[in-house]
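Re: that chain you flagged

S.,

Sorry for the slow reply, it's been a week of failed gels. I finally had a moment to sit down with the sequence you sent. For the record, here it is as I used it:
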Amino acid sequence: MNQHLHRSAVQRTAIVLAVVVQIGATFLPQLGLGEPIGDRSDSVRTLITPAGWAFAIWGPLFFGSAVYGIWQALPAQRDNVLLEKIGWASVVALSAQGVWAIYTQFANLTFVSAIIILVSLVALLMILRTLTAFERPFSRAERSIVAITFSALAAWLTAASIVNITASLVYHGVGGGSAHPLIAAPVVVVGGVIASLAVLRSRGNPWYALVFAWALLAIFLRGGQSHQAIAIAAALSGLLVLVAAAAGLAKKENRYHWLG
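Prediction finished late last night. Pasting the structure tokens below so you have them in one place:
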């Protein structure tokens, strides 16, 4: 265990700065810099862009990130093995979200923004893998501050990556067909399959499943109301994700792992 002790001050400081970048970047338009992300999204809206209210989830996600940034920096967490394992991946994941916000507000949802968001997603999936395989039970704080926050972020970024990619195709004039429901619907199903596999591989992670289902509900209540194919795809994908969660949580050890 000794090799895990004494997390460096550099790592702890880097995480705090990453959270500042993640959250602070979204306030640039209020300072007269760039355009709001919502306006950028509206300019390249597709059939799988979630309803606007769904993006309110960033409030709890930012709150969880801020609590994580403060909590992990406390002296009492200097020797936390879990935090050491995910520390640098969380720096990449959180700071990349801020970089994505800055870029999008000044440019738009281009292919570059898609690459940036995929960088954050990869780092989040690395964290999710660590959380899934972690050898000892989470403490209450680890579960509520780390496991829930990063599982939710991984789920939302999974959905956001798919939306960003389709929006960037529209922006570059490649995705004219993405406005067609018979093309957009399979994209939703593919996203659902990817998310359900992620849930299965993460031992039925309920937090990932619920947040991804939230995104699918927002797609169902927007694009699904005007196109039956989108509604069916969103409902099918949601069913796949929830069944995967139920299958994983059917095992007592998995329920204890995620829920305590």
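What I noticed first: The first helix runs from residue 9 to 24.

Talk soon,
D.
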